[in-house]
Each structure stands twice: as structure tokens, then as C-alpha cells.
Specification:
The complex is a heterotrimer of chains A (379), B (153) and C (279). By secondary structure, chain A is α+β, with helices and mostly antiparallel strands. Chain A has 13 helices and 16 strands. Chain A has 2 domains: 10-238, no CATH class; 249-378, no CATH class. Chain A has an 8-stranded mixed β-sheet, sandwiched between helices. In chain A, a hairpin with a 2-residue loop joins strand 2 and strand 3. Chain B has 4 helices and 8 strands; from the N terminus they run H-H-E-E-E-E-E-E-E-E-H-H. In chain B, the strands form 2 sheets. Chain B has a 4-stranded antiparallel β-sheet. In chain B, strands 2-7-4-5 form a 4-stranded antiparallel β-sheet, with no helix packed on it. The longest helix of chain B has 27 residues, at 120-146. The model of chain B has no long low-confidence stretch (mean pLDDT 90). Chain C folds into 2 domains: 2-100, Elongation Factor Tu (Ef-tu), domain 3 (Beta Barrel), CATH 2.40.30; 107-236, Nucleotide-binding domain of ferredoxin-NADP reductase (FNR) module (Rossmann fold, 3-Layer(aba) Sandwich). Chain C has 6 helices and 16 strands. Chain C has helices spanning 81-88, 128-136, 159-167, 192-195, 213-225, 267-274; strands spanning 12-23, 26-33, 47-52, 56-61, 72-77, 94-101, 114-120, 144-150, 172-177, 180-181, 187-188, 205-210, 233-236, 252-253, 256-257, 264-266. In chain C, the strands form 3 sheets. Chain C has a 7-stranded mixed β-sheet with strand order 11-9-8-7-12-13-16, with helices on both faces. In chain C, strands 4-3-6-1-2-5 form a 6-stranded antiparallel β-sheet. Chain C starts with 11 loop residues before the first strand and ends in a 5-residue tail after the last helix. Chains A and B meet through loops of A and loops of B. Strand 5 of chain B pairs antiparallel with strand 10 (180-181) of chain C.
Chain lengths: 379, 153, 279
């Protein structure tokens, strides 16, 4: 038996042993979820073999634009984030909350819970890990605990990947959420591709992260290997596609509820809700109650909703946020201002998905910049 | 026994008015009382007075065929009734009916109009106070118009 | 372990013991739990999520007496699908109840002060519990005044309670309607006009307001005109709610969740965005 590994240790995993990591996670009973090709992009799905990863693929992203292309090498993680995020698994877009059946004049609620697999998220990016900790604050760190989220989140094992490439719409550096994973992971890896060698510098974040490596071949990381991995991440940080000045951003937006820029963005915004669907932190849901025709069986479903929908703010007789202007404003001010008051952190992690997947390329960093600039010009 | 002059001085409508002007106003004032259901004035009549209400309650009404009299507003203690005396053609636009026994000081509009023309300080004070009453009534009317308790809000 | 977390979205089954009409579009139901305890404790101002089997759920404020936990009362205005379905329920049938949720009126802050309660329309329903509470501990407060505005005399809620309260000498009740026929002997005019007709100490008072947002806006302005500080004004807000527990995101009102931090807010805490359009 090898000398035992500890939290905080840094080791090297060769590419040829990567499958051992998947096998070890499988053996521990985890269902491995990670990046894979699908729907014309890189999405998250079940993985069993290294070859399920989008090996050698990368993505190009810009406002309103995403496409895949070959890299010319065999990188396992040579891309950034796609339209999916981990909320697809922790917080599914459609979820049954309860079933009830009529009994006499009353009804009986069936409290049976769904069976949830123990998840291992492989290839979680730092921005997305921050997004998970943000949703944790919404669903499990407040006065009420959402049992559905809590049971899915449970003991999710997180294999982080420090980004070796910045996307065209990335701005995690501005938001302080990346590109190096610094919290919430069991193990964090940096992929190093050299002409003669392909390996991963692994940082062990937890005891159970260390435990996983008991049956995987590894070696301790040399100073040089560490330095090389650092250079990879530092280089990513230097190439962010977007930038947002977050200096006093809450106050900036609170001062500007009536800024003409909201009219401007409302002219472009289609209120399609794409940004809220791809956002890894957006959590609005609607609750739908249904009943069968004979009236004996009822169900309650929770479905992902969006503040861009007119119904979102409906109270008897009308919607509080009728104009698209007010709905875009609600989304953006919530994301980077009111969220801070609500949960002590911004709701934006700089992943850039809302920019990439906006059909008309509305860019939250650009909108924030326009408002800030107009104030500076007025001074 | 309160004189019209002391009642005027204490009334919120004339709060902080120069005592000289109070005395001036008292020259046009007459204490008066209306019994329950008595009309104080009716729509279309010449508006020769306005009323500083000391106590009681007055309904301002409008008659609509089939619906009968509709109360638009009620006015009570500390308030003032009527501004048509001030604005041509000096005719009442609504009915005013005491719905409780009501004590008031009636001020003679014709007398006051000419005094206001002579003494612009008095005229300005009177207009200022009526402007404030008219504004708050307009605001209240606008809110009523919104029908905020209706099902559509 | 995780499977033991209570499901906050599961309603408890309550039976309708009484149901009566209040006005042409409002009714009150009295509920009793069918399982577990027979008592339901709440603080005045809080609300429940009421569920009609197979139809849906709606947030409804609690309008009974907090000192009588054996009867849970809700006054409901028939405005949408769910409230219509509630209206069709009969005595003996059941409703799902989740709650109580939200913040409450600041009765404890009001001790030793004048309490001015201002209600508009159905806004009297969430204020009635606080009136019961103030009356039951009347000696703790100075003046207690209830100003109530309704659409027409026929829309006045709780006439039986109002008449009883009007007979008391230790609570002042003023009612006004927006429009009335000539047989109405009460006041006609908006509820804000009543504020000028009462006397209170603006520096030692607590104002509690509930009604349509426009009515509350003008009421706050009128109280401030009278010299009332914003820290002494409290109001109950309404927003769309799908869950009542801060998960669904619908009831956001600027930085606050009406279901969690509200529905009762201190005006000072929401002043900066209270008047913002479409917020």
C-alpha cells in the first residue's frame, strides 16, 4: 500500500490512467456525469468511459454564437462551458413535488421520494462550482430546505477541471470565480498537454478525494509540474473574452433603475428566456397543480420558470412587470445587484452562457458597462 | 359662547391667517345650522356662500336618472364646503345636503369677492387656501376614479 | 438522513367547518386540521398557502383571532381559478394548508404608542387579527384607530365586527367608501382623507397599512405629511407567490422576497424601491 494521501496534496495523474479515475468513482457507487458531445454542442451526460468525453474537440463562443471544432490534439477538456450546467442534475427543470389521491371528502398526500443516484460531477469548471454554492444558499442554507435539491446535492463528488482555455464570452476573472477552482471540489485537475506527454496535475481537496486515489496509479507532483500547471491556468486568466467592472456594482444598478439603457436593451430583447435557462444560478420555478378528470388523483409539479415570462409577476388582474424593459431590468439587477442583498454574493459567476446563448447577443457585461460609462460621462 | 370670529380663527382652513384678515372675514360671516337632511344648496343655484364646517357631516351629491342621488364625497368637521362662489359663473355644480345635524359658519361670497378685489393680501390668502382644498379634492377624486378596490387592479 | 427533511411543499389537510359570504365577491372559511394537533398558531399579518385538490394553490392572509388557535379563518376574494374553486367548496370538504408564512405586524413595537390601522378593500383581512390582538391587550397601547376604505357600502367587510368595535369607547373606527347612494350615512371619499380627521401623536405612533399598492402609496405620503417618520410606518405587500418559502423567485420586490422578508415591511426598509415602476 502506498503512503496515504492527504487533503491538500498535489499529485500527477497520467493521461493513460485517466480511466482508472472513472473506474474508481464507479466502484464507489457514483453515477458519473460530465461533458460529452450532443445536441450540436458540449453538454453534460452520463460517462462510463474516457472516450465519452469530447476528446480533441473545442468550442468557439461569441455573443449569440456557439460552434464546435476540432482542436488538433487529444485534449480531454479543451473547451469551456456549454448550454448545460450542473443545475440540470441538481435542480431538474421539471420535477414532481407530490402526488395526492382523494379519500372520502379528504385527500391523502403520497410522500414517497424518488430514488436519487449519488452523483460525481467530472469536469466541473470553477465558475460552475461557484454556481453550485450559490444555489446551495438558495435551497439548503436558508430558513427552509428544499428536500429535492438537498437529496440530489447530497454528497455529490466534484472533480473540478481548471480551465486551460478561456471562451469568447468568459469573464470569471471579473467575478472572482475562476479560472482556478478554489472551493467546493473533492479533486481539482489541470490538464497539461505537451508534445511528448499528456498528464493532469491533481489537487486533493477533501479526504474522500484523497481516498479515491488509493487504487489509481499516480506520482507526487514535482515543482516543475506544478509550475507548468500554474502557467496553464494563469494563461487562461489572461485571455478572458469579456470583462465586467464589479466595483460597487450593486449601488451602481440601484441608482439606475430608470436609466434609458433599459429602453435600449428592451428594443433588442426578445424575452425568450434563454439566458435564464442556461444560467447556472437562475432558480425561478413555477408550481403547477394538476388533477385527473375523474378528480381522484392530483399531482404537483415544479417547473423551471423565467422572470422574462409575463406570467412571472402576475397578480390578480395584471403583471407587475408588464414591459420587457422591466423584465430585463429585473433579471440583470437581480443577477448582479439584489442577489448580493439576498444571498451575500452576486448571482453571476461570469460563465458567459447568457451572452453566448442569447439569440440577439445581448451582453450583460456590455449593458453594465453602458450604465457605468454614462455615469462617468455625466461627472 | 364662541363668536364667529373665534370659531374662524380656530378652524383648520384658516390656520395661521393674519388676525387682521380674520376680523375682515368675520365681517362677512354668519353662524348657521342645518338639520339632518336639509339641503344647504342645490345644483344650478346661485353660489353666494361658502361654509366653514364646525361639526356634523355634509354629503355632496349628484342626481342621476334611475340611480337617484349619488354621494360623491362627504365633508365634515374642520373642512370647508363650496368654491363655486369664487369661480364664475358662481353657480353650484352639485347638491349639498346635511346628513347629520351640522353647524357651520357661512361666509358671504359676494361680500368676500369684492373684499378680495380690494385687498389682494386677503385675496391671495383665500385663493391659496382654496387651491390647497381643490388640489386635495382633485387628488382624492383621481384615486376614486382609479377604482383601486375593483377586481382589475 | 436527507430523506427525513420535511417537504415544505406538502400541504396539511384541513376541513371546512364553516363557510359564509362576507360581500358579493368575498367569503370566509373556518378551518380545522384533520390530522395531528387541533390548533394552528400564527402571528397577525402572516399568510397561508391554500390548496384546492387538483386545482391549485394561492397565498391567502390569515384573518382570524390569534388567541383562538382552534379556528383558522381565511377571507377570500373570488378573483381567479383557484379562489373560484375555493368558493365552490362546501362545509365538510377539505383544503390543503401550508403555513403560516411571512412576517407579522409589529404589535410589540406599538406598546405605549398610538396605533393607526389603515385598510383598503380586502386589505382589512390581514389586519383584522391585529385588531383582535390590540383589543385583547388594550391597556398596552394608547389610541387605537382603524381607518377603513371600501369601494361601496356593500363592499364593507366584517360589518358584524366593525359594529361591535364601534360600540367600544377605547377604539376609534372610521369608514369611508368611494361611492355610495344617498341612503349611506357614512363618509364618502378615499381612505387617505380620513387621516386628517383623526388626532394622534405622530412621534409616538405606529401605522399599519394594507390595501392596493396605489392606496398604500398615497397613505404613506399622507402620514408623512402629518409628521410620521418612515420608521413607524408598516405595510403589507402583495406579489405573485408560487411557493411561499423563497424558492420560486416570483415574489421578488427589489432585493426582498415578499414571502420571506414580508409581507409586512417597515416602510424605511423598502422606501428606496417602493415607488419604482414595474419593479
Amino acid at each position: 500500500m502506498k503512503p496515504s494521501l492527504q487533503r491538500g496534496d498535489r499529485i500527477v495523474l497520467e493521461r493513460e490512467h485517466f480511466q482508472n479515475l472513472l473506474d474508481a468513482l464507479n466502484k464507489k457507487g457514483y453515477q458519473i456525469i460530465g461533458p460529452t458531445l450532443g445536441e450540436g454542442s458540449i453538454i453534460y451526460g452520463k460517462l462510463s468511459c474516457v472516450s465519452d468525453l469530447p476528446i480533441g474537440w473545442t468550442d468557439e463562443q461569441e455573443g449569440g454564437m456557439y460552434h464546435l471544432k476540432k482542436r488538433g490534439d487529444n485534449a480531454l477538456f479543451g473547451y469551456t462551458v456549454g448550454p448545460h450546467s450542473w443545475k440540470n442534475f441538481l435542480f431538474p427543470s421539471v420535477q414532481q413535488l407530490l402526488q395526492a389521491k382523494r379519500e372520502g371528502k379528504g385527500f391523502q398526500v403520497n410522500r414517497k421520494r424518488e430514488e436519487i443516484p449519488k452523483f460525481a460531477f467530472l469536469g466541473a469548471r470553477s465558475c460552475d462550482i461557484y454556481a453550485i454554492t450559490i444555489q446551495d444558499k438558495v435551497f439548503i442554507k436558508g430558513k427552509f430546505v428544499d428536500p429535492h435539491y438537498a437529496s440530489r446535492r447530497g454528497d455529490t463528488f466534484i472533480v473540478a477541471v481548471n480551465c486551460g482555455k478561456a471562451g469568447g464570452t468568459c469573464f470569471c476573472v471579473s467575478m472572482g470565480t475562476g479560472p482556478r477552482a478554489d472551493l467546493g471540489f473533492d479533486i481539482a485537475m489541470t490538464e497539461v498537454l505537451k508534445s511528448d506527454r499528456h498528464y493532469f496535475l491533481v489537487e486533493l481537496g477533501t479526504e474522500r478525494g484523497a481516498e479515491i486515489f488509493q487504487e489509481i496509479p499516480y506520482k507526487n507532483a514535482s515543482e516543475e509540474e506544478r509550475a507548468t500547471a500554474n502557467t496553464v491556468v494563469e494563461n487562461t486568466a489572461k485571455h478572458m473574452g469579456r470583462y465586467m467592472n464589479t466595483d460597487h456594482i450593486k449601488d451602481l444598478l440601484y441608482r439606475n433603475y430608470e436609466h434609458p439603457r433599459w429602453n435600449d436593451v428592451a428594443e433588442r430583447c426578445l424575452a425568450c428566456a434563454n439566458c435564464t435557462m442556461v444560467c447556472p444560478t437562475c432558480f425561478c420555478t413555477t408550481v403547477e397543480d394538476t388533477g385527473d378528470v375523474p378528480g381522484g388523483h392530483a399531482e404537483r409539479w415544479r417547473k423551471l420558470d423565467s422572470c422574462f415570462n409575463l406570467d412571472h409577476s402576475y397578480i390578480h388582474g395584471g403583471s407587475t412587470r408588464y414591459s420587457i424593459r422591466s423584465r430585463y431590468r429585473q433579471w440583470m439587477i437581480h443577477k448582479i445587484a439584489t442577489w448580493i442583498d439576498q444571498f451575500g454574493t452576486t448571482g453571476c459567476v461570469g460563465c458567459g452562457r447568457c451572452i453566448t446563448w442569447c439569440p440577439v447577443a445581448i451582453d450583460i457585461t456590455e449593458e453594465a458597462r453602458a450604465i457605468r460609462k454614462s455615469e462617468q460621462a455625466a461627472e | 359662547m364662541q363668536t364667529p370670529e373665534s370659531s374662524l380663527a380656530e378652524h383648520p382652513f384658516l390656520k395661521d391667517l393674519n388676525p387682521r384678515l380674520i376680523t375682515f372675514l368675520a365681517g362677512c360671516a354668519l353662524s348657521t345650522q342645518f338639520h339632518k337632511n336639509q339641503f344647504i344648496f342645490r345644483e344650478g343655484e346661485e353660489a353666494n356662500y361658502f361654509y366653514i364646517i364646525l361639526d356634523g357631516k355634509v354629503a355632496i351629491e349628484l342626481f342621476a336618472p334611475e340611480r337617484g342621488s349619488i354621494t360623491i364625497q362627504t365633508i365634515g368637521e374642520g373642512e370647508v364646503l363650496g368654491w363655486s362662489w369664487l369661480i364664475p359663473p358662481h353657480r353650484w355644480r352639485f347638491d349639498a345636503r346635511a346628513i347629520e345635524s351640522t353647524r357651520a359658519i357661512a361666509l358671504d361670497g359676494r361680500c368676500l369677492r369684492s373684499k378680495c378685489e380690494e385687498d389682494h393680501e386677503l385675496g391671495y390668502e383665500v385663493l391659496k387656501r382654496f387651491a390647497s382644498v381643490i388640489t386635495s379634492r382633485l387628488e382624492a377624486t383621481r384615486l376614486q376614479l382609479l377604482d383601486v378596490y375593483g377586481a382589475h387592479v | 438522513m436527507i430523506n427525513n427533511i420535511p417537504e415544505p411543499m406538502t400541504p396539511n389537510v384541513f376541513r371546512i367547518n364553516k363557510k359564509y359570504k362576507e360581500t358579493h365577491d368575498t367569503f370566509t372559511i373556518e378551518l380545522e386540521p384533520t390530522q395531528g394537533t387541533d390548533e394552528f398558531f400564527f402571528s397577525p399579518g402572516q399568510f397561508n398557502m391554500l390548496y384546492v385538490f387538483g386545482v391549485g394553490e394561492a397565498p391567502i392572509s390569515i384573518s382570524g383571532d390569534p388567541k383562538n388557535p382552534k379556528t383558522l379563518k381565511h377571507t377570500i376574494r373570488v378573483v381567479g381559478t383557484v379562489t373560484k374553486a375555493m368558493y365552490r367548496l362546501k362545509r365538510g370538504e377539505v383544503l390543503g394548508v401550508r403555513g403560516p408564512f411571512g412576517s407579522h405586524w409589529p404589535s410589540e413595537n406599538a406598546v405605549g404608542k398610538d396605533v393607526i390601522i389603515i385598510a383598503g378593500g380586502i386589505g382589512l383581512a390581514p389586519l383584522r387579527p391585529v385588531v383582535y390582538q390590540l383589543i385583547s391587550q388594550r391597556e398596552k397601547y394608547r389610541k387605537v384607530v382603524l381607518l377603513y376604505g371600501a369601494r361601496t357600502p356593500e363592499d364593507i367587510l366584517y360589518t358584524y365586527d366593525l359594529e361591535q368595535w364601534q360600540r367600544r369607547f377605547d377604539i376609534e373606527i372610521k369608514i369611508t367608501v368611494d361611492a355610495a347612494a344617498e341612503n349611506w350615512r357614512g363618509d364618502v371619499g378615499v381612505v387617505t382623507t380620513l387621516i386628517r380627521k383623526i388626532s394622534f401623536d405622530p412621534s409616538h405612533m405606529i401605522g399599519m397599512i394594507c390595501g392596493p399598492e396605489i392606496m398604500m402609496r398615497f397613505t404613506v405620503a399622507e402620514l408623512q405629511n402629518c409628521g410620521v417618520g418612515k420608521e413607524n410606518i408598516f405595510l403589507s405587500m402583495e406579489r405573485n407567490m408560487r411557493c411561499g418559502i423563497g424558492f420560486c423567485g416570483h415574489c421578488q420586490f427589489g432585493p426582498v422576497f415578499v414571502c420571506k422578508e414580508g409581507p409586512v415591511f417597515n416602510y424605511e426598509c423598502i422606501e428606496n424601491f417602493f415607488g419604482t415602476r414595474e419593479i
